[in-house]
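tool_call: predict_structure(chain=1)
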Amino acid sequence: MADPWNFSGPVTGTRSGSGVVTLVDESTFAISDGAGDIHRGGAQGLFVRDTRILDRFEVMVNGAPTEPLSTLSEDPFSATFVSRCLPPPGRADSTVMVFRSRYVGQGLREDVTVRNFGDEPTFCSVEVFVGADFADLFAVKEGRAGTHAPPGEGGAVVFGNGAEGGAVPGAAEAGVIAHSYRRGGVNRGVEVRFDGATIGAEDLATFEVIVPARGEWTTTIEVAPVIDGTVIEPRYRRGQPVERAEPAERLARWRRRVPQVETDHAGLREVVLRSSEDLGALRIFDPDFPERVVVAAGAPWFMTVFGRDSLITAWMALLVDPDLALGVLQTLARFQGVEVDPRHEEEPGRILHEMRFGEAASLSLGGGSIYYGTADATPLFVMLLGELRRWGVARELVDELLPNAERAIEWIERYGDSDGDGYVEYHRATDRGLVNQGWKDSWDGVRFADGTVAQAPIALCEVQAYVYGAYLARAHFAFEAGDTGTYERFRSKARQLKAAFNRDYWLPDRGWFAVGLDADKRPIDSLTSNIGHCLWTGIVDEDKAAIVAERLMSPEMYSGWGVRTLASDSGGYNPISYHCGSVWPHDTAIVAAGLARYGFEDEALRLVMGLIDAAVAQGGRLPELFSGLDREDVGVPVAYPTSCSPQAWAAASPLLCLRILLRLDPWVPYGKTWLHPRLPEGIGYLKVEGIPLAGARVTVEVGEGVDGGVAVVGLPEGIELVREPRRPSSAV
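tool_result:
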């Protein structure tokens, strides 16, 4: 059996730009074609908590599929598919159209409307074909699920008695097609419900209707998952207004809470709005802790909690909703490592890499299986907790997480730095783990300049930068508590790490930092975007920052849309690879934040506008990644074939860009907030209303017509507004 954690091959059937439509709500998502049909033989389907409960859902009229015309979608979890029936023989045009309004949430509801624009009634035989294979998400992603095969590898297919290893179609009841699957102690099923249909076979429901002239016929189909014999009702129910359903109400509440953006740049406004919508849809609500909101990594393949992704997304989204960061921290703390378990790479204090549900019987996050193989989530956990404190959010709840931060620091010092050289390295515990355990976690994601793939243990540059940020956060927590000894200890550790890093990672003959140190402590000398993360945390000495900025903005690194993950003149460069030359929006946004932190505002604004332009060119939404082809050579961002969209940290990237434009850096415990807005050419006015800060809602207005160029309203009492950028030296 292929290992689920380290698969890095292509994904079948979800290529960008091929008419594929993905709808998502929490851990439910549907992948279909442009007509709304779900076809067997690929990666399409309706998935609930990592299991494909439908691998076929096709609507035919008079024995033929419909012709897709358009897909209308205002929400990430709903869409209307518009298609037309094939014209009768001898006619050029059809007078019959089909509208399929789909709502995804813990199952699916679909309202099917057939409209007749002809002058006489027309007969329509509407056939709905359904099927279920109950394939595991990993099996689908990796192409191990057949056209109609159960997920149990090596299990015999046995129908009718629920034996091990097979899908068991249930007997057709009145208006219901039921399928079930049982393997060992795992029991899954699905009910597809129809109004007024004839169930002729185990996978076919037929409606025979006369659609009146200039009239329409409508029906509703419900799809409900079944877990261990319990039917989970879909969030959108027949006969109920769709705007009253839970996903719609949650999104409405989210829309009311997020800050409002006014600007004379239509593209920026569109992109920020789409980002907020996508983040709203990617949120996960644990029934065991409904007050804790976390964010899934991305649709379709990562609709679950990821340590690194969730932490970075929450950091970027602080401008919109600090409660998201709090929920992420609380959830990750709940599952923090407690023992040494090589199978899952768990270690005491370690923050998880990924959670999967698979065969879990519960709808709660606690029913998932966890893999811990990541080097960066643990220091990022401490960094985000420190940043949350700086924003003045939920002091008592942040205090409750301080013991988890302490355990995370202990992991850094004991398990992360296993050889005691002061750097955090990674090396997988078994051959089933991830080879690379930084954010570039594909097998070939870390290379030397000649293209040679580096061998673990590897100490990545950005991981050391995150550790530096974690040490500073720990120091400031101690300072607030009056613990002078701990404060001095961690401030000293941060300074020592910074000095060592600038000595051991700097490549003076190249003018950049090594992406990491390999198993022999040799600097891995390729030019990568990772060094921009080092600017972001402030670990770079200021006398080296200008050279780093120049390298990051060089033609070899900057594509015109974003920063390439690997320089175009490096060995192994491939603009359509996953991590060796592509552009990742979150990566570029972090680089921009790092450039701005060191005072390279022009360069930061170029990156911000490049990302905004890339998003506008892709319908307002930034995907997980796109190709590193140069903007001057190809006038549009070229899609990466299997990029997730929506994807959490891509969606949050424009929000970090918005913060970069404002240069907003709160430090509430110290009674200060830095603010130094600067707008790039093309943006003359920007107003962000309702920024959450220390329990207040702050409005910042910048640009033409504003008295003094900048206006701030609603700043909490006792907070001094510092009208200058925060420099790296102010962190230590």
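agent: Residues 73 and 223 are 20 Å apart (CA to CA). Proceeding to next step.
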